[in-house]
Protein backbone atom coordinates (compact mmCIF):
# COMPACT_ATOMS: atom_id res chain seq x y z
CA UNK A 1 0.00 0.00 0.00
CA UNK A 2 1.35 3.40 -0.98
CA UNK A 3 0.49 6.50 1.07
CA UNK A 4 1.20 10.07 0.00
CA UNK A 5 1.19 12.56 2.88
CA UNK A 6 1.76 16.32 2.73
CA UNK A 7 1.68 17.61 6.33
CA UNK A 8 2.67 21.22 6.92
CA UNK A 9 4.50 20.12 10.06
CA UNK A 10 5.72 16.76 11.40
CA UNK A 11 2.80 14.43 12.10
CA UNK A 12 1.81 10.81 12.67
CA UNK A 13 -0.10 8.80 10.07
CA UNK A 14 -2.41 6.17 11.49
CA UNK A 15 -3.83 3.50 9.17
CA UNK A 16 -6.28 0.64 9.40
CA UNK A 17 -7.52 -2.14 7.14
CA UNK A 18 -11.05 -3.35 7.84
CA UNK A 19 -12.93 -6.23 6.22
CA UNK A 20 -16.47 -6.62 4.89
CA UNK A 21 -17.89 -6.84 8.41
CA UNK A 22 -16.00 -3.70 9.52
CA UNK A 23 -13.59 -5.73 11.67
CA UNK A 24 -10.06 -4.32 11.92
CA UNK A 25 -7.67 -6.78 10.30
CA UNK A 26 -4.48 -4.73 10.34
CA UNK A 27 -3.39 -1.35 11.69
CA UNK A 28 -0.36 0.72 12.45
CA UNK A 29 1.19 4.17 12.50
CA UNK A 30 4.38 5.89 11.48
CA UNK A 31 5.94 9.33 11.72
CA UNK A 32 5.71 11.64 8.73
CA UNK A 33 8.07 14.65 8.32
CA UNK A 34 6.72 17.95 7.05
CA UNK A 35 6.33 18.17 3.28
CA UNK A 36 5.33 15.69 0.59
CA UNK A 37 6.37 12.10 1.20
CA UNK A 38 5.48 8.72 -0.28
CA UNK A 39 5.47 5.75 2.09
CA UNK A 40 4.96 2.17 0.89
CA UNK A 41 3.92 -0.72 3.12
CA UNK A 42 4.37 -4.20 1.73
CA UNK A 43 1.62 -6.47 2.96
CA UNK A 44 0.96 -10.19 2.87
CA UNK A 45 -2.25 -11.83 4.02
CA UNK A 46 -3.98 -15.17 4.18
CA UNK A 47 -7.32 -13.36 4.05
CA UNK A 48 -9.33 -12.78 0.89
CA UNK A 49 -12.31 -10.58 0.15
CA UNK A 50 -13.23 -6.90 0.26
CA UNK A 51 -11.17 -4.51 2.36
CA UNK A 52 -11.26 -0.84 3.32
CA UNK A 53 -8.15 1.23 3.98
CA UNK A 54 -8.42 4.33 6.16
CA UNK A 55 -5.62 6.78 6.94
CA UNK A 56 -5.46 9.83 9.19
CA UNK A 57 -2.87 12.49 9.95
CA UNK A 58 -3.38 12.53 13.71
CA UNK A 59 -2.37 16.07 14.68
CA UNK A 60 -3.83 17.78 11.62
CA UNK A 61 -6.97 15.59 11.84
CA UNK A 62 -6.92 15.07 8.06
CA UNK A 63 -8.50 12.04 6.40
CA UNK A 64 -8.73 10.71 2.86
CA UNK A 65 -11.05 12.99 0.92
CA UNK A 66 -14.13 11.80 -0.96
CA UNK A 67 -13.45 11.11 -4.61
CA UNK A 68 -16.06 10.47 -7.26
CA UNK A 69 -18.74 8.33 -5.60
CA UNK A 70 -16.36 7.17 -2.86
CA UNK A 71 -17.15 8.70 0.54
CA UNK A 72 -14.73 10.41 2.90
CA UNK A 73 -12.07 8.50 4.75
CA UNK A 74 -11.62 5.30 2.77
CA UNK A 75 -10.10 3.57 -0.21
CA UNK A 76 -11.11 0.03 -1.09
CA UNK A 77 -9.51 -3.04 -2.64
CA UNK A 78 -10.20 -6.71 -3.10
CA UNK A 79 -8.15 -9.87 -2.72
CA UNK A 80 -9.21 -12.93 -4.67
CA UNK A 81 -9.00 -16.22 -2.79
CA UNK A 82 -6.58 -18.92 -3.95
CA UNK A 83 -8.71 -22.05 -3.84
CA UNK A 84 -6.52 -24.15 -6.12
CA UNK A 85 -5.57 -26.52 -3.29
CA UNK A 86 -9.19 -27.59 -2.73
CA UNK A 87 -11.05 -26.70 -5.93
CA UNK A 88 -9.79 -27.75 -9.36
CA UNK A 89 -9.83 -25.24 -12.20
CA UNK A 90 -13.15 -25.18 -14.03
CA UNK A 91 -13.23 -26.87 -17.41
CA UNK A 92 -15.71 -25.84 -20.08
CA UNK A 93 -16.76 -28.21 -22.83
CA UNK A 94 -17.68 -25.12 -24.82
CA UNK A 95 -17.18 -21.43 -24.22
CA UNK A 96 -20.93 -20.78 -24.10
CA UNK A 97 -21.10 -22.40 -20.65
CA UNK A 98 -19.66 -19.33 -18.93
CA UNK A 99 -22.31 -18.02 -16.56
CA UNK A 100 -21.42 -14.37 -15.88
CA UNK A 101 -21.24 -11.20 -17.95
CA UNK A 102 -21.28 -7.50 -17.30
CA UNK A 103 -21.95 -4.02 -18.56
CA UNK A 104 -19.63 -1.07 -18.12
CA UNK A 105 -16.08 -0.22 -19.12
CA UNK A 106 -13.24 0.60 -16.76
CA UNK A 107 -9.98 2.00 -18.12
CA UNK A 108 -7.67 0.97 -15.31
CA UNK A 109 -4.29 0.56 -16.94
CA UNK A 110 -1.82 3.46 -16.69
CA UNK A 111 -2.26 5.98 -19.48
CA UNK A 112 -5.67 4.70 -20.56
CA UNK A 113 -8.78 6.84 -20.54
CA UNK A 114 -12.21 6.38 -22.03
CA UNK A 115 -12.19 5.22 -24.66
CA UNK A 116 -8.62 4.85 -25.83
CA UNK A 117 -7.85 1.34 -24.64
CA UNK A 118 -9.29 -1.85 -23.23
CA UNK A 119 -12.11 -1.06 -20.83
CA UNK A 120 -12.66 -4.70 -19.85
CA UNK A 121 -9.25 -5.94 -18.78
CA UNK A 122 -8.00 -6.55 -16.17
CA UNK A 123 -11.29 -6.14 -14.27
CA UNK A 124 -13.58 -8.54 -16.14
CA UNK A 125 -11.25 -11.57 -16.20
CA UNK A 126 -10.28 -10.92 -12.57
CA UNK A 127 -13.96 -10.96 -11.54
CA UNK A 128 -14.89 -13.89 -13.78
CA UNK A 129 -17.10 -11.82 -16.10
CA UNK A 130 -16.94 -13.28 -19.61
CA UNK A 131 -19.93 -12.05 -21.64
CA UNK A 132 -20.07 -8.46 -22.92
CA UNK A 133 -22.21 -6.55 -25.40
CA UNK A 134 -20.95 -6.14 -28.96
CA UNK A 135 -22.91 -3.59 -30.93
CA UNK A 136 -24.12 -4.34 -34.43
CA UNK A 137 -27.12 -2.01 -34.18
CA UNK A 138 -28.25 -0.78 -37.57
CA UNK A 139 -28.30 2.86 -36.45
CA UNK A 140 -24.68 2.48 -35.27
CA UNK A 141 -23.27 0.69 -38.31
CA UNK A 142 -25.21 2.50 -41.06
CA UNK A 143 -26.24 5.86 -39.59
CA UNK A 144 -26.40 7.77 -42.88
CA UNK A 145 -27.50 5.38 -45.63
CA UNK A 146 -27.79 1.73 -46.62
CA UNK A 147 -25.15 -0.76 -47.72
CA UNK A 148 -22.16 0.78 -45.95
CA UNK A 149 -21.58 -2.08 -43.51
CA UNK A 150 -19.28 -4.70 -45.00
CA UNK A 151 -19.07 -7.98 -43.07
CA UNK A 152 -15.71 -9.45 -42.16
CA UNK A 153 -13.46 -10.34 -39.27
CA UNK A 154 -11.94 -6.85 -39.35
CA UNK A 155 -15.14 -5.45 -37.81
CA UNK A 156 -14.36 -7.14 -34.49
CA UNK A 157 -13.03 -4.77 -31.84
CA UNK A 158 -9.40 -5.50 -30.85
CA UNK A 159 -10.32 -6.19 -27.22
CA UNK A 160 -12.52 -9.10 -28.36
CA UNK A 161 -9.92 -10.80 -30.51
CA UNK A 162 -8.34 -12.68 -27.63
CA UNK A 163 -11.36 -14.98 -27.46
CA UNK A 164 -11.57 -14.83 -23.66
CA UNK A 165 -14.51 -12.41 -23.69
CA UNK A 166 -17.69 -13.57 -25.41
CA UNK A 167 -20.07 -11.50 -27.55
CA UNK A 168 -23.75 -10.84 -27.02
CA UNK A 169 -24.59 -9.14 -30.33
CA UNK A 170 -26.88 -6.12 -29.99
CA UNK A 171 -29.35 -5.45 -32.84
CA UNK A 172 -31.80 -2.93 -31.39
CA UNK A 173 -32.57 0.38 -33.09
CA UNK A 174 -33.29 1.80 -36.55
CA UNK A 175 -31.28 4.62 -38.22
CA UNK A 176 -33.02 7.88 -39.01
CA UNK A 177 -32.90 7.42 -42.78
CA UNK A 178 -34.79 4.10 -42.42
CA UNK A 179 -37.21 5.33 -39.73
CA UNK A 180 -40.80 6.44 -40.31
CA UNK A 181 -40.15 9.36 -37.95
CA UNK A 182 -37.01 10.56 -39.74
CA UNK A 183 -34.98 10.08 -36.55
CA UNK A 184 -33.23 7.03 -35.13
CA UNK A 185 -35.80 5.00 -33.23
CA UNK A 186 -36.44 1.91 -31.17
CA UNK A 187 -40.20 2.47 -31.27
CA UNK A 188 -41.16 1.63 -34.87
CA UNK A 189 -40.19 -0.81 -37.62
CA UNK A 190 -38.19 0.41 -40.62
CA UNK A 191 -39.90 1.84 -43.67
CA UNK A 192 -38.13 -0.76 -45.84
CA UNK A 193 -38.19 -4.33 -44.60
CA UNK A 194 -36.02 -5.32 -47.56
CA UNK A 195 -33.25 -2.93 -46.48
CA UNK A 196 -33.55 -4.21 -42.90
CA UNK A 197 -33.30 -7.83 -43.98
CA UNK A 198 -30.31 -7.01 -46.17
CA UNK A 199 -28.49 -5.47 -43.22
CA UNK A 200 -29.33 -8.37 -40.90
CA UNK A 201 -28.10 -10.91 -43.44
CA UNK A 202 -24.79 -9.08 -43.56
CA UNK A 203 -24.62 -9.08 -39.75
CA UNK A 204 -25.18 -12.83 -39.80
CA UNK A 205 -22.38 -13.26 -42.32
CA UNK A 206 -20.13 -11.04 -40.20
CA UNK A 207 -20.82 -13.02 -37.03
CA UNK A 208 -20.34 -16.39 -38.70
CA UNK A 209 -16.91 -15.37 -39.97
CA UNK A 210 -15.92 -13.92 -36.60
CA UNK A 211 -17.00 -17.02 -34.68
CA UNK A 212 -15.07 -19.32 -37.00
CA UNK A 213 -11.92 -17.20 -36.67
CA UNK A 214 -11.91 -16.00 -33.07
CA UNK A 215 -14.42 -18.15 -31.15
CA UNK A 216 -14.09 -21.72 -32.46
CA UNK A 217 -14.97 -23.12 -29.01
CA UNK A 218 -18.28 -21.23 -28.98
CA UNK A 219 -21.17 -23.27 -30.40
CA UNK A 220 -23.39 -20.34 -31.38
CA UNK A 221 -23.68 -16.61 -31.95
CA UNK A 222 -26.20 -14.91 -29.68
CA UNK A 223 -28.28 -11.96 -30.88
CA UNK A 224 -30.43 -9.66 -28.72
CA UNK A 225 -33.04 -8.02 -30.95
CA UNK A 226 -34.68 -5.38 -28.73
CA UNK A 227 -33.76 -3.55 -25.52
CA UNK A 228 -36.47 -2.81 -22.92
CA UNK A 229 -39.35 -2.26 -25.37
CA UNK A 230 -41.70 -1.77 -22.38
CA UNK A 231 -44.26 0.92 -23.12
CA UNK A 232 -43.05 3.00 -20.16
CA UNK A 233 -39.31 2.53 -20.75
CA UNK A 234 -36.72 4.81 -22.27
CA UNK A 235 -36.87 2.85 -25.56
CA UNK A 236 -40.58 2.03 -25.81
CA UNK A 237 -42.24 0.14 -28.65
CA UNK A 238 -44.99 2.45 -29.95
CA UNK A 239 -46.33 0.42 -32.86
CA UNK A 240 -48.67 -2.57 -32.88
CA UNK A 241 -48.00 -6.02 -31.47
CA UNK A 242 -48.31 -7.47 -34.97
CA UNK A 243 -45.56 -5.23 -36.31
CA UNK A 244 -43.35 -6.06 -33.31
CA UNK A 245 -43.67 -9.75 -34.16
CA UNK A 246 -43.04 -8.96 -37.83
CA UNK A 247 -39.79 -7.22 -36.85
CA UNK A 248 -38.68 -10.35 -35.05
CA UNK A 249 -39.71 -12.52 -37.99
CA UNK A 250 -37.62 -10.42 -40.38
CA UNK A 251 -34.67 -10.49 -38.00
CA UNK A 252 -34.91 -14.22 -37.37
CA UNK A 253 -35.19 -15.19 -41.01
CA UNK A 254 -32.45 -12.85 -42.22
CA UNK A 255 -29.95 -13.77 -39.50
CA UNK A 256 -30.56 -17.50 -39.88
CA UNK A 257 -30.18 -17.21 -43.65
CA UNK A 258 -26.51 -16.29 -43.24
CA UNK A 259 -25.55 -17.67 -39.82
CA UNK A 260 -26.19 -21.37 -39.37
CA UNK A 261 -25.24 -21.09 -35.69
CA UNK A 262 -27.48 -18.16 -34.77
CA UNK A 263 -29.48 -17.92 -31.54
CA UNK A 264 -31.97 -15.05 -31.86
CA UNK A 265 -33.23 -13.79 -28.51
CA UNK A 266 -35.61 -11.28 -26.93
CA UNK A 267 -37.74 -9.43 -25.94
CA UNK A 268 -35.53 -8.08 -23.09
CA UNK A 269 -38.18 -6.26 -21.09
CA UNK A 270 -37.06 -4.44 -17.96
CA UNK A 271 -38.51 -6.76 -15.32
CA UNK A 272 -38.68 -10.53 -15.23
CA UNK A 273 -42.47 -10.61 -15.05
CA UNK A 274 -42.92 -8.12 -17.88
CA UNK A 275 -41.13 -10.57 -20.17
CA UNK A 276 -43.66 -13.21 -19.15
CA UNK A 277 -46.52 -10.83 -19.98
CA UNK A 278 -45.09 -10.09 -23.42
CA UNK A 279 -44.47 -13.76 -24.20
CA UNK A 280 -48.06 -14.59 -23.29
CA UNK A 281 -49.61 -11.61 -25.07
CA UNK A 282 -47.64 -12.14 -28.27
CA UNK A 283 -47.92 -15.94 -28.36
CA UNK A 284 -51.13 -15.96 -30.47
CA UNK A 285 -49.28 -13.90 -33.09
CA UNK A 286 -46.56 -16.54 -33.43
CA UNK A 287 -43.88 -14.60 -31.54
CA UNK A 288 -42.16 -17.70 -30.15
CA UNK A 289 -41.58 -19.06 -33.65
CA UNK A 290 -38.96 -16.32 -34.09
CA UNK A 291 -37.12 -16.87 -30.81
CA UNK A 292 -34.33 -19.36 -30.22
CA UNK A 293 -34.04 -18.13 -26.65
CA UNK A 294 -35.15 -15.44 -24.24
CA UNK A 295 -33.27 -12.40 -22.99
CA UNK A 296 -34.59 -10.49 -19.99
CA UNK A 297 -33.50 -7.80 -17.62
CA UNK A 298 -33.69 -9.16 -14.11
CA UNK A 299 -35.38 -6.34 -12.20
CA UNK A 300 -37.99 -7.52 -9.75
CA UNK A 301 -39.13 -4.63 -7.55
CA UNK A 302 -39.82 -0.91 -7.52
CA UNK A 303 -36.26 0.15 -6.78
CA UNK A 304 -33.95 -2.84 -6.53
CA UNK A 305 -31.79 -1.83 -3.57
CA UNK A 306 -30.48 -3.07 -0.22
CA UNK A 307 -33.90 -2.25 1.25
CA UNK A 308 -35.61 -4.21 -1.52
CA UNK A 309 -33.85 -7.61 -1.61
CA UNK A 310 -35.03 -10.17 -4.17
CA UNK A 311 -37.08 -12.20 -1.67
CA UNK A 312 -38.74 -9.16 -0.05
CA UNK A 313 -42.24 -9.91 -1.35
CA UNK A 314 -42.10 -13.70 -1.09
CA UNK A 315 -44.06 -13.89 2.17
CA UNK A 316 -46.65 -11.26 1.33
CA UNK A 317 -50.13 -12.60 2.19
CA UNK A 318 -51.46 -11.44 -1.18
CA UNK A 319 -50.47 -14.09 -3.76
CA UNK A 320 -50.49 -11.50 -6.54
CA UNK A 321 -47.91 -9.46 -4.65
CA UNK A 322 -45.84 -12.48 -3.60
CA UNK A 323 -45.58 -13.47 -7.28
CA UNK A 324 -43.35 -10.43 -7.82
CA UNK A 325 -40.57 -11.85 -5.63
CA UNK A 326 -37.64 -12.80 -7.82
CA UNK A 327 -37.69 -16.59 -7.22
CA UNK A 328 -41.39 -16.76 -8.07
CA UNK A 329 -40.95 -14.50 -11.10
CA UNK A 330 -38.18 -16.68 -12.48
CA UNK A 331 -40.23 -19.84 -12.04
CA UNK A 332 -43.11 -18.19 -13.89
CA UNK A 333 -40.74 -17.20 -16.69
CA UNK A 334 -39.29 -20.69 -17.02
CA UNK A 335 -42.81 -22.11 -17.17
CA UNK A 336 -43.75 -19.68 -19.94
CA UNK A 337 -40.62 -20.62 -21.89
CA UNK A 338 -41.49 -24.30 -21.57
CA UNK A 339 -44.98 -23.55 -22.83
CA UNK A 340 -44.11 -21.35 -25.80
CA UNK A 341 -40.51 -21.98 -26.92
CA UNK A 342 -38.80 -25.02 -28.31
CA UNK A 343 -37.02 -27.35 -25.84
CA UNK A 344 -33.52 -26.27 -24.89
CA UNK A 345 -34.14 -22.56 -25.42
CA UNK A 346 -31.49 -20.48 -23.68
CA UNK A 347 -32.27 -17.84 -21.05
CA UNK A 348 -29.86 -14.90 -20.73
CA UNK A 349 -30.34 -12.21 -18.09
CA UNK A 350 -28.53 -9.35 -19.81
CA UNK A 351 -28.83 -6.68 -17.13
CA UNK A 352 -29.59 -6.59 -13.43
CA UNK A 353 -28.31 -3.81 -11.21
CA UNK A 354 -28.81 -3.02 -7.55
CA UNK A 355 -28.97 0.66 -6.63
CA UNK A 356 -28.35 2.18 -3.25
CA UNK A 357 -31.48 2.89 -1.21
CA UNK A 358 -34.28 4.94 -2.71
CA UNK A 359 -34.15 8.62 -1.88
CA UNK A 360 -30.45 8.64 -0.99
CA UNK A 361 -27.72 10.75 -2.55
CA UNK A 362 -23.96 10.53 -2.79
CA UNK A 363 -22.14 12.65 -0.27
CA UNK A 364 -19.04 12.87 1.92
CA UNK A 365 -20.48 10.24 4.26
CA UNK A 366 -22.64 8.19 1.90
CA UNK A 367 -22.67 5.33 1.12
CA UNK A 368 -21.82 4.06 4.60
CA UNK A 369 -19.96 0.85 5.36
CA UNK A 370 -23.21 -0.87 6.27
CA UNK A 371 -24.88 0.24 3.04
CA UNK A 372 -21.91 -1.00 1.00
CA UNK A 373 -22.09 -4.36 2.78
CA UNK A 374 -25.83 -4.68 2.14
CA UNK A 375 -25.39 -3.57 -1.47
CA UNK A 376 -22.80 -6.29 -2.12
CA UNK A 377 -24.91 -8.92 -0.37
CA UNK A 378 -28.03 -8.14 -2.40
CA UNK A 379 -26.05 -8.14 -5.66
CA UNK A 380 -24.67 -11.59 -4.89
CA UNK A 381 -28.03 -12.99 -3.78
CA UNK A 382 -29.86 -11.58 -6.78
CA UNK A 383 -27.56 -13.13 -9.37
CA UNK A 384 -27.36 -16.45 -7.54
CA UNK A 385 -31.16 -16.59 -7.54
CA UNK A 386 -31.32 -15.73 -11.25
CA UNK A 387 -28.87 -18.51 -12.08
CA UNK A 388 -30.28 -20.96 -9.59
CA UNK A 389 -33.80 -20.50 -10.92
CA UNK A 390 -32.81 -21.32 -14.47
CA UNK A 391 -30.89 -18.54 -16.20
CA UNK A 392 -28.00 -19.76 -18.32
CA UNK A 393 -26.09 -16.51 -17.90
CA UNK A 394 -26.46 -13.29 -15.90
CA UNK A 395 -25.00 -9.81 -16.43
CA UNK A 396 -23.89 -7.66 -13.51
CA UNK A 397 -24.87 -4.04 -13.97
CA UNK A 398 -22.97 -1.75 -13.59
CA UNK A 399 -19.24 -2.46 -13.26
CA UNK A 400 -18.66 0.83 -11.42
CA UNK A 401 -20.84 3.41 -9.69
CA UNK A 402 -22.47 5.83 -12.10
CA UNK A 403 -22.08 9.44 -10.93
CA UNK A 404 -25.61 10.64 -11.69
CA UNK A 405 -27.51 9.01 -8.82
CA UNK A 406 -27.13 6.10 -6.40
UniProtKB/TrEMBL annotation:
<protein>
    <recommendedName>
        <fullName>Asl1-like glycosyl hydrolase catalytic domain-containing protein</fullName>
    </recommendedName>
</protein>
<dbReference type="InterPro" id="IPR051923">
    <property type="entry name" value="Glycosyl_Hydrolase_39"/>
</dbReference>
<dbReference type="GO" id="GO:0004553">
    <property type="term" value="F:hydrolase activity, hydrolyzing O-glycosyl compounds"/>
</dbReference>
<dbReference type="InterPro" id="IPR017853">
    <property type="entry name" value="GH"/>
</dbReference>
Amino acid sequence: MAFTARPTEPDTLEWQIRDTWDAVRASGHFAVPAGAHDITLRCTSRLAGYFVVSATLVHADVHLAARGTRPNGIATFGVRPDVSAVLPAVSYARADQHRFGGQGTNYLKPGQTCCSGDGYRPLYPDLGLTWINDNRNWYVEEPQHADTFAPGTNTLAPYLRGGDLLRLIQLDGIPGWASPTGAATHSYPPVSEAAYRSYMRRVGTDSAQIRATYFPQQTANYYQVTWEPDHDSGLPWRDSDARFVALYQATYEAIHASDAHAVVMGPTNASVRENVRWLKRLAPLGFAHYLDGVTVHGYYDAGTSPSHPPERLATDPDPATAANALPASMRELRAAMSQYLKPGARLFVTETGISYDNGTAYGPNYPTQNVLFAHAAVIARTHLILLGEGADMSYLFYSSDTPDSP
